[in-house]
Every structure is written in C-alpha cells, then in structure tokens.
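Model it.
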Amino acid sequence: MVNKRFINAEGETTVTRPDGTVIVSEKGPYPRFAMQAPFTKRITITTPNGLSGVITTEKTVELAEASDPLSLLSLTTQITTNDRSSESVYDATKKTLTTKSAAGRKSVSILDDKGRVIQQQVPGLAELFYTYDSRGRLTQVIEGEGDQARTASINYDPDSGYVAELTDALQRTEEFTRDAVGRVLKQKLPDNRQIEYEYDKNGNLTALKPPSRPEHLYAYNEVDLQTEYQAPSVGLESHETLSSYNLDEQVTRITRPDNQVVDFNYDQGGRLTEIVLPKGTQTYTYDLNSGQVTAVTDLSSDIKLNYRYDGSLLLEEKWSGSLTGRVNYGYNADFRLASHSVNEQSHIAY
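Modeled.
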C-alpha cells in the first residue's frame, strides 16, 4: 500500500491514497506572519467515483500597528465545507473567543490573562464558570447562577499534586489514595464503599477488588501484554481467560474459561486472515491496493459477505451463499451518509 505525494512549483500538494482518494491541498500566508507561518487554505478531496468535497479556510486579523504582528486586536477564522461555513472570532481586547457553527449555534468563551477559559456562554443554556488555583489547575466548575447554581470541585494532594477528591453538584465526594508515582490504590466512593487496585513493577494493573466483592486478577508477559485474566468464580471449573501473542504483539490465541479456544492467523503484512472459532472458521480477504477488507467468509455455513467501496466510503455489503441480501449506501459531498437501501427496495434518505 503506497501513498503517492506530489508537490508542484506553486506549492500545491497532491496526495493519492491507496484506496484511490485524491487529496489536493493549498497553503497560503498567515495574515500576521506571511509565509513564515503558512496554513492550509484549501483542501479538495475526490473519491475514485468522482464524489468531491472542498474545505476552505480564511483568516483575517486586525492589528493595533500594521508593522507589529504581535499587536493583535482580533483574529477571525472562517472554515467553509462546501456551502456550509463556521466562524470563530478572538477579541484580544475583551479576551473573548466567539464561535458560530454552520448550523448557527453560537458560544462565547471568556479568557483570563493566562489564556484560560473562565466563563462560557451558550444561548439557551446555563453559563459555566471555571476557577483555577495558583498552579493553574482547574479547581471548580459552576453551572448557572444564584439558587440554580450547581458546583463541582476538584481537590489536589498538596504534596504530589495528583487529584485527591472529586465532588459533584450533589456534594457527593470520591476520594483517591495513590502511591508515589500517582497510581490509584484506593478509590473511596460517596457511600463509603471502596475499590482497591494493585500493580506490578511496570505499572500494569494486577488486581482490582470491587466493594465487598471478590477481586479480579491480571497477569502480563515480559512486554506488558495481558496473558491472563482471572475473574471471580461463578461456578465453572475454570475462571481464567488466557491470551497468547506473536512477535508482532498480535493476539494469536484466546483460551476461554470453558476451555474453548479461539485462534487468530495473520498474513505477512500483519493483517488478520482467519479467526478459528469453536463453531468454525471465518476468513478475511483484502484489496491488494487499498488494504481494505473485501470479503468475510464463514466456512462453516458457506455464507460470504462482500464489501465494495468508493475510496474509504463503504458503498455495498452483499451476502451470498445460504444467506443472500444486499445493503447499499450513498453519500453527499460532505462524505456523510445520505441514503441507504436494502435489497434495492427499502430506500431511506437522510
């Protein structure tokens, strides 16, 4: 699978992806720093079947002094996807960031002198207020004002700096006890129940004990891949799930608590080609160019599922063998699902 990349004399970049999708991008000068800080001002994406979408970005600035790029008064960014535009406006004097989505939804964020959001306003919703400590950490979030205000808070350990307590708007508090490197050892719930955690020397979770319940145990190999999960006993002779891996760290076998085995086979490119289940084998076939899955076959039932694409967009799922059927998908220029049909009859448009 090869990505082809070409840059012409004007700096326009064309990338052809393995699935046939062509992406053409064009850079332009940033209003404050010109081509010392270029940005992508236009992207055109075209699928092999000709479906095309265009994304353009425009930036405009207002400076107190035209010769001083740091004397910013405002920065406006407009992003247009085909015929839909969204906009964000930063006002350096008022320290506000105002955004307007393509659907017309508006929000205003008020920043402090350090650029942190301290207030958010969305029409029709309660305002949000944020408080920080002297180290810049978020300590409180208030939603609404007056009698309708709801407050959530975060407390930190004074020595380690890790989160020690979380309190929600109903004043329910969770407490955390940690080790020297910040791993949670105990989690105290609002009703005083407690969850306990244990780790190995590499930081892998080895035990989890829910409140008043038996613990769950985990084991790992030398490269920190989970090889064993031991669940609490539920009456089976065994309650362990075992996992094996190849040198590429891909799972090759899972042995379930009922001693049933699932095997996984891969090709030279590391792609999954077979899942051998107790009830039968499923095989996977890939497109030689794109690497996309083109077929899944259940050898135990002769049912085959084929896939057809337009670039990365799934166009069709087709069943054959003892079970037949077809589902087709259509897309608009935004590459969003616009329609689908079942057996070329039941047509649904979005």
